[in-house]
């Protein structure tokens, strides 16, 4: 299978890639890429993708990003140009197209400072554009390791009220609440324990990944980020980190009690996400039978959100009619990269 297009979604914590061979999806993959630690992690992630694909022939590349937000960079302009220049160290510049939102794709050599607002953190719009081309209406929810996107789709359009991160945060279309990297102290201030409400320590002791390890819902292949304490990812490791939030050691009670507490954190996160959904639906722009479309490695939560809201659930992977290869990662796990690949294929 000759790969002729690779789409990249360069995030601040992960690098996602989708490879196409004609209309066939040849590969879907994600690599850890902690950009805040330095560009060497980006280069290592790109090399790992190429090693996995065993790429031997030249092909086109399409790229979108959110990694320009990493505090490695002084501002978004430095971040966008820094990441594009870094990618050019691996593939010829003339093969790279950059997603610029409603402006379509730009050859990397034509990107100027004036284009940065359209390029920076625009991956959500690629996801929306593709989904809107396949559905008449729906609420698209992409829950990843760090954030959740809420996009209203109707009659081939993405009905976004915001474009920049600031605007999207203001309108509730971008919510910093994911299933791996979100600090538990950001979700709640108190938790029920031994019949009492215990105030939690405002320390980055544990993350949502610890919760979903205990509930058994976090896919192992998607659990690529370092833990809060740099320790292991066994169930006992997650319990130990959660116990610290209460000023306790894991040995102070039973594993079942800690799992029950994990479900409390899960419920609070679902409550938070449900409110975000209802805010968007309250605009009244969708019909009552509009589906909820789930994307991202946290879409197991989207299925439950759809049920709570009384809407049918549709998986983002089901929007593409071509059979995909068997792999750990599915197209819906890397929805922006997949969407960019589909959009770029039309050029």
Poorly predicted runs of 5 or more residues: none
Helix-strand category: alpha/beta
Under CATH, the topology of one domain can be stated as Nucleotidyltransferase, domain 5
> What is the CATH architecture assignment of one domain?
2-Layer Sandwich
Structural shape: globular
Mean of all residue-level pLDDT scores: 95
CATH class type of one domain: Alpha Beta
Major sheet summary line:
6 strands, mixed
The CATH superfamily of one domain bears the name ATPase, nucleotide binding domain
Helicity range? 25-40%
Which secondary structure elements does this structure contain, and how are they paired or packed?
Elements: E1 5-10, E2 14-21, E3 24-32, H1 40-53, E4 60-65, H2 76-88, E5 96-99, E6 105-107, H3 116-119, H4 123-134, E7 137-143, E8 148-154, E9 157-158, H5 165-170, E10 174-175, E11 190-193, E12 196-199, H6 208-214, H7 235-245, H8 255-281, E13 292-295, H9 299-309, E14 313-315, H10 335-345
Parallel strand pairs: 1-4, 4-5, 7-13, 13-14
Antiparallel strand pairs: 1-2, 2-3, 5-6, 7-8, 8-9, 8-10, 11-12
Helix pairs in contact: 4-10, 6-7, 6-8, 7-8, 8-9
């Amino acid at each position: 299978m000759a790969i002729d297009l690779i789409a990249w979604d360069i995030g601040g914590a992960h690098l996602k890639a989708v490879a196409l061979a004609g209309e066939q999806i040849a590969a879907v993959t994600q690599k850890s890429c902690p950009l805040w630690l330095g560009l060497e992690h980006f280069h290592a992630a790109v090399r790992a993708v190429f090693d996995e694909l065993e790429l031997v022939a030249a092909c086109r590349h399409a790229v979108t990003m959110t990694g320009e937000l990493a505090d490695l960079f002084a501002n978004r302009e430095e971040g966008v140009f820094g990441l594009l220049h870094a990618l050019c160290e691996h593939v010829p510049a003339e093969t790279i197209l950059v997603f610029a939102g409603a402006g379509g794709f730009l050859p990397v050599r034509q990107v100027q400072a004036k284009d940065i607002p359209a390029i920076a953190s625009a991956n959500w719009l690629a996801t929306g554009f593709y989904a809107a081309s396949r559905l008449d209406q729906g609420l698209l929810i992409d829950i990843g390791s760090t954030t959740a996107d809420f996009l209203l789709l109707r009659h081939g359009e993405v009905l976004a009220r915001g474009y920049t991160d600031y605007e999207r945060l203001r309108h509730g279309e971008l919510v910093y609440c994911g299933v791996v990297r979100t600090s538990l102290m950001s979700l709640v201030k108190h938790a029920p324990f031994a019949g009492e409400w215990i105030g939690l320590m405002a320390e980055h002791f544990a993350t949502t990944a610890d919760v979903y390890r205990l509930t058994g819902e976090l896919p192992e292949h998607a659990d690529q980020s370092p833990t809060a304490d740099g320790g292991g990812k066994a169930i006992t490791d997650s319990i130990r980190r959660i116990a610290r939030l209460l000023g306790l050691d894991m040995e102070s009670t039973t594993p079942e009690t800690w799992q029950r507490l994990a479900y409390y954190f899960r419920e609070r996160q679902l409550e938070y996400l449900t409110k975000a959904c209802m805010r968007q639906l309250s605009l009244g722009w969708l019909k009552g039978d509009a589906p909820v479309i789930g994307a991202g490695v946290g879409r197991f939560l989207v299925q439950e959100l759809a049920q709570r809201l009384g809407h049918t659930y549709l998986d983002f992977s089901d929007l593409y009619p071509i059979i995909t290869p068997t792999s750990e990662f599915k197209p819906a796990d890397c929805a922006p990269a997949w969407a960019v690949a589909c959009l770029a294929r039309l050029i």
